[in-house]
Write a structure and sequence with these properties.
heterotrimer, A alpha+beta, B alpha+beta, C alpha+beta, A: alpha+beta, Ubiquitin-like (UB roll), DNA polymerase, domain 1, 2 domains, 5 strands, C: Enolase-like, domain 1, five-stranded antiparallel sheet, three-stranded parallel sheet, 40% helix
């Protein structure tokens, strides 16, 4: 059986993927895409978050075969032609990156939120990102980054006072 | 301007792109995979290890036991207390200790091999409670050890506490406890070892590559030049990546098999086998006069080091030194003891025992204020250490004392919240304060750092540093210091970091010491490089008696705008003579060791100060605590990179929130994030971080440190806030559902549900 | 070679299940147990049946005479679907409190039931709604109340060749107020320490109460429901009901030291949840 899906805009066709393999193992070990991180393996930390048809899932809890015929986006697929995604830009400018291990999952989770709700409040951001644990930042600058990225994605000018 | 601005942090662009390769991401085709054989019940005597069933499995290459370790099988970060057998020899001392190591062609084969190794064990009586461990007749964790289960005893004595208590207007006495805490860095321990140019190379996430190198060299019986450690990009540390973890296994297998090896811990293995924060039991007696001035503090501290010493000696001493808090206390009697047990070992974690004692010294301040009818903030202000006063170790503080400024910053917020905290029939609200001071660097011992700066002929400056950046931002801060001191643009500074073959020892990324100590080392290197360049330029210009200055990549003669030389020209001149344009620098803070019998001395050259306040609500139905707001004022001396400082404060506050409200590691039970909850974004309050800059005369441009201070006052502030909400002091952490409900239920009729 | 099959019709799914396939819906529980098995060297399944593409299992027909909730309906859908919010707001609320955004994205109500954790928020919610599971196998279909399907923590009566198609739910009387409360160790992404689902019809014509994370298997607390229906609505009644729920808990589970918290919390949270449901039914506080 062949597992066909779209990965970061490119078609992928794989043979011999076991039924029980997780999407995380497929990405990290079979395809060597190390931007997707493993923090716990049991869906509690969100470091392995990827987008499946644009919505965030924990790749450790997702059978690889669920990707069949669908679109998978990992952190490697967010920037296009060397141009950072607005959320990647805002994570940089807001100083939301410390150790950076949660960052790929956090950015994808934020992207999923903004596809549902382009203008979330801080409280909505905090609830939506609760599945992505960060031990470094205290979330303060991550919330700021998501707010900033949301404005950019809506095509609005940056806020005057951001803190 | 570079200082005091917040340029984009080194490495963050790679991080948002997902390009960064952490320790856990290392590996190449053809690597061998490792798996540890770990024992889950301890203590146990090892009667025999039979590797044959494992070796019979396809893909299993070799099984190692302690007998295969060519060097010294005793690891641990403090030289005088190395006691951890990385593969147990005769006795398994705590659950999770490894007894054998399997190398195999695939991860599955390695795991299968680890399961197949037959270990014959005989159970032995153990001790799992720190107080019982010190009782007569307790089973010894390290049989034959002269001091039994007592790892260390530290005292700080000054004046006469008993007489002072008699003369006090009020004396309060209480017990406090804190729980065992897991660092929970998002990246689990991982790395790779391989041979290159006849040397064994090890790369792994770490907070201290040079210490790793030295321990691995001892472990394998090699010479330092035979082994290279390179810090992999590190996904958080918080003290948990100070001791070695995967490195000895990687190195041992690669050394024997002459093949690359790879090992990444699962979260479960990380929880099971790496160090934790020491749980503390504390008994405090504190006296004050009628104005609230502290008269005496008597503190008895007891902590559990688990089966191994790790950083225990440092935590035991630092907890003692900080036991009375950032206050002037004329009479003290502190006893700090640390006991071995058969629990998982504990080691360094952000704050080294100070977050634990802060719960107690702050609880005592509130109790005194309440007993005397004084304002809780004012009693802290009255007692706050000031320049010219002595700490409990007899160290007279000269400057860089910013506690009252921190209190000034939080006071208006504290008063506003106090006025707002009303609550209703469902939610009780409360506000609490926590303050702290924290000695920068290691306690009363030499802890030097070194650095080099080299000007290249193409106009760039290379900073060589052994400092491990684990996410806190030292790569950027050290570059900012070098650029400022040399008068070049930040972008001109390249970095070579954390590679023992190319950099020299900077000491650990711990004790909030890198900005202060390694920052000073970089400053010294810059000074020497400048002197070298100016000296050479002087020769080239023949400007013997004129004053030369270095600015914007030029050497200029003061008062003579016509004569100037490009630095690269000078550098070329130097290199043509076979001399590199290289400056070396070092710094070791001036300390005086503490006297063993009284604890008097000068443990640190600089102190950071902080005050935080917290606003909480408690659900009277469920006992759930929600933190609404936290304000955190921190005296950092000088914020070199303000955004990084604010990031440290907010991150520390959240880690403190975890310590205060929810985190509790149960040895033998807790296995993963499913049963060990750390705060999520939904738990995050509105945080107001505030920077106070009371310059430290000995710091680089006045800077001190902030990494650990950020965490320390939070849990005490939360305990006070919840205590105020419930009308009952909360002295035991975490403030779990059960503890809060017990207090609510104890309040009885005055607190009916609905 | 192992196979992962995701049929788009029930007949095929039933046939695959009959070959001994492990069922996956969202994967949020199954993948954890497969990982654990892998780490322990246990065999991985040879055949996995993905049930999420079967139309019957995705049915959500709450306006029907006999409301039906398909097993493969995700928590995300339960949280966001306007009909769920209108007909069963307690279910929408419960769904919003399950796990994380990621878990709600794929996790399903059927999976929640099949995993049979006593702390499952979705199970607690639909238990209050009188859920009767509809099961399919080569032998045909059968119905079993959810409170009978789940027998003990992580144990249920689902046969080796059976799959859960969905749940029949009771229609609630017009104007019934509903409430759902959850207590966890943190504000989100927490396993329930306690959850309470309650529905009260105007004039106390009907009362439904289920308490989760406390009993070995899901149940409505019928004695407490009867007590409430016979009483005078108001704070004293809610308090009595709360205490009765706590007594019910100690009667079933016995008294252990770990129960000290539960007893207090059940009493208080149950009282609060009933009060909220009553207020939503238009009753005076």
């Amino acid at each position: 059986m062949t597992l066909d899906f779209t990965l970061n805009g490119q078609p992928v066709s794989l043979e011999g993927v076991p039924a029980a393999e997780s999407l995380l193992d497929l990405l990290r070990h079979r395809l060597d895409l190390k931007g997707t991180k493993e923090g716990c393996g049991v869906g509690e930390c969100g470091a392995c978050s990827v987008l499946l048809d644009g919505k965030v899932v924990d790749s450790c809890l997702t059978p690889a075969w669920k990707a069949a015929g669908r679109e998978v986006t990992t952190i490697e697929g967010l920037a296009r032609d060397g141009q950072l995604h607005p959320l990647q830009e805002s994570f940089l400018s807001a100083g939301a990156v410390q150790c950076g291990f949660c960052t790929p999952g956090m950015i994808l989770s934020a992207q999923s939120l903004l596809s549902d709700n382009p203008d979330p409040s801080d409280e909505e951001i905090k609830i939506a990102l609760a599945g992505n644990v960060c031990r470094c930042t205290g979330y303060h600058d991550i919330v700021l980054a998501v707010r900033r990225g949301a404005r950019a994605l809506r095509g609005e000018a940056p806020e005057a006072d951001e803190s | 301007m570079i200082l005091g601005t917040s340029p984009l942090r080194s490495g963050s662009r790679e991080r948002v792109l997902g390009d960064t390769r952490f320790g856990a991401d290392q590996g190449q085709a053809g690597d061998l995979y490792l798996a540890c054989v770990r024992i889950h019940k301890a203590p146990a005597r090892i009667d025999g290890i039979d590797p044959a069933p494992a070796l019979a499995l396809p893909g299993v290459v070799r099984v190692f036991t302690a007998a295969d370790i060519p060097g010294v099988n005793r690891l641990g970060i403090i030289p005088v207390s190395k006691d951890q057998e990385f593969l147990a020899e005769e006795l398994v001392r705590c659950p999770g200790q490894a007894v054998a190591l399997v190398a195999a062609e695939t991860p599955e084969a390695a795991r299968a091999g680890a399961r197949a190794v037959v270990v014959k064990l005989t159970g032995a009586p153990g001790v799992y409670d720190m107080a019982e461990a010190l009782a007569e007749g307790a089973p010894l964790v390290h049989p034959g050890r002269e001091q039994g289960n007592l790892l260390d005893l530290r005292v700080i004595k000054n004046g006469d506490v008993e007489a002072a208590f008699k003369a006090s207007a009020v004396v309060v006495e209480a017990d406090y406890t804190t729980s065992m805490i897991e660092h929970s860095a998002l990246e689990t321990e991982g790395g790779r070892a391989w041979w290159e140019d006849g040397k064994l190379h090890v790369t792994a996430c770490t907070q201290n590559p040079h210490y790793d190198r030295d321990d691995l060299v001892r472990f394998l019986g090699l010479k330092p030049e035979d082994l290279v450690v390179i810090q992999a990009e590190t996904g958080g540390g918080f003290g948990g990546k100070l001791d070695v973890s995967v490195q000895p296994y990687l190195a041992l297998a690669a050394w024997h098999l002459k093949r690359p090896t790879r090992l990444v811990y699962t979260r479960e293995e990380s929880f099971l086998s790496t160090g934790k924060r020491h749980p503390f039991r504390m008994h405090y007696v504190t006296g004050a006069d009628e104005q609230g001035r502290l008269t005496a503090v008597k503190a008895e501290l007891l902590a559990d080091t688990g089966a191994f010493a790790s950083y225990g000696l440092a935590v035991c001493m630092r907890a003692a030194v900080h036991a009375a808090g950032p206050y002037y206390v004329p009479n003290v009697d502190v006893t700090s003891r640390m006991a071995y047990t058969n629990n998982v070992w504990t080691g360094a974690m952000r704050g080294f025992g100070v977050p634990q004692v802060a719960l107690a010294h702050e609880g005592q301040m509130d109790a005194l204020a309440d007993a005397l009818g004084l304002d809780r903030l004012e009693i802290r202000r009255v007692n706050a250490l000031r320049p010219g006063q002595a700490t409990i170790t007899g160290q007279v503080l000269k400057g860089g004392v910013g506690l009252t400024q921190c209190l000034d910053k939080v006071e208006p917020i504290y008063r506003t919240w106090q006025a707002k905290a009303k609550g209703d029939d469902r939610f009780a609200e409360g506000v609490g304060l926590g303050v702290m001071y924290y000695g920068i660097g290691n306690t009363g011992v030499s802890n030097p750092s070194t650095a080099q700066l080299e000007w290249t002929t193409d106009g760039r400056v290379v900073l060589f540093t052994g400092v491990a950046d684990i996410g806190q931002g030292s790569d950027t801060v050290l570059r900012q210091l070098a650029a400022t001191r040399l008068g070049v643009r930040l972008e001109q500074i390249d970095l070579v970091r954390g590679d023992t073959s190319r950099t020299t020892n900077a000491g650990a990324t711990s004790a909030s010491r890198q900005t202060y100590i390694s920052g000073n080392a970089v400053m010294a290197a810059a000074e020497n490089l400048e002197a070298l360049v100016l000296g050479e330029a002087r020769k080239m210009l023949g400007a013997r008696h004129q004053e030369l200055v270095l600015e914007d990549g030029m050497v200029r003669v003061k008062g003579d705008p016509e004569s100037a030389l490009g630095v690269t020209e000078v550098v070329r001149h130097l290199t043509q003579r076979g001399q590199a344009a290289r400056g070396e620098g070092g710094f070791d803070p001036h300390t005086v060791p503490l006297k063993p019998d009284t604890g008097q001395g000068k443990p640190y050259a600089a102190y950071a100060w902080a005050a935080q306040c917290a606003f909480v609500e408690v659900d009277r139905d469920s006992g759930m605590v929600r933190v609404k707001e936290i304000a955190a004022a921190h005296d950092v001396g000088r914020a070199i990179h303000p955004k990084a400082v604010l990031g440290q404060i907010c991150g520390g506050v959240m880690m403190g929130l975890g310590l205060g409200l929810m985190e509790e590691f149960h040895p033998g039970k807790t296995s993963n994030f499913e049963d060990y909850h750390i705060p999520t974004s939904a738990d995050a309050p509105r945080i107001t971080p505030l920077i106070v800059e009371e310059p430290e005369a000995t710091g680089p441009y006045g800077a001190k440190g902030v990494g650990e201070p950020a965490l320390i006052p939070t849990a005490p502030a939360l305990a006070a806030a919840v205590g105020q909400a419930l009308g009952q002091p909360m002295r035991h952490l975490p403030l779990s559902l059960e503890r809060v409900m017990e207090t609510l239920a104890g309040a009885g009729a005055k607190d009916q549900p609905c | 070679m192992s196979r992962y099959l995701a049929p788009d019709n029930l007949a095929e799914a039933v046939a695959i299940r009959a070959q001994g396939a492990r069922i996956v819906a969202g994967g949020t529980d199954l993948m954890i147990s497969l990982r654990q098995a892998r780490l322990e060297g246990q065999p991985q399944p040879e055949l996995i049946l993905d049930v999420t593409r079967i139309p019957e299992l995705n049915r959500l027909e709450l306006g029907a005479e006999r409301p039906f909730l398909g097993a493969a309906v995700t928590f995300r859908r339960l949280k966001t679907d306007p009909e769920v919010a209108r007909v069963y707001p307690l279910l929408a609320k419960a769904a919003s409190m399950v796990g994380s955004v990621q878990v709600r994205q794929t996790g399903t109500i059927g999976g929640n039931a099949a995993n049979s954790s006593p702390a499952a928020d979705g199970v607690s919610a639909i238990t209050a709604l009188g859920a009767v599971a509809l099961l399919a196998s080569p032998r045909g279909q059968r119905e079993l109340p959810l409170s009978e399907l789940i027998t003990a923590p992580n144990k249920n009566l689902l046969a080796a060749d059976e799959l859960i198609m969905g749940f029949w739910l009771d229609r609630l009387p017009d104007g019934a107020g509903q409430a759902f409360s959850k207590v966890g160790r943190r504000q989100a992404v927490a396993i329930a320490r306690l959850n309470v689902a309650a529905a009260i019809a105007p004039e106390l014509r009907e009362v439904r109460l289920s308490v989760g994370a406390c009993f070995p298997s899901p149940r409505r607390l019928t004695l407490v429901e009867e007590l409430v229906m016979a009483g005078q609505p108001g704070p004293e009644l809610w308090r009595q009901a709360g205490r009765a729920a706590a007594t019910n808990f100690t009667d079933v589970c016995g008294w252990r030291s770990s129960a000290a918290y539960k007893v207090e919390a059940i009493a208080r949270v149950t009282a609060r949840t009933l009060a909220t449901a009553w207020a939503k039914a238009g009753g005076a506080a």
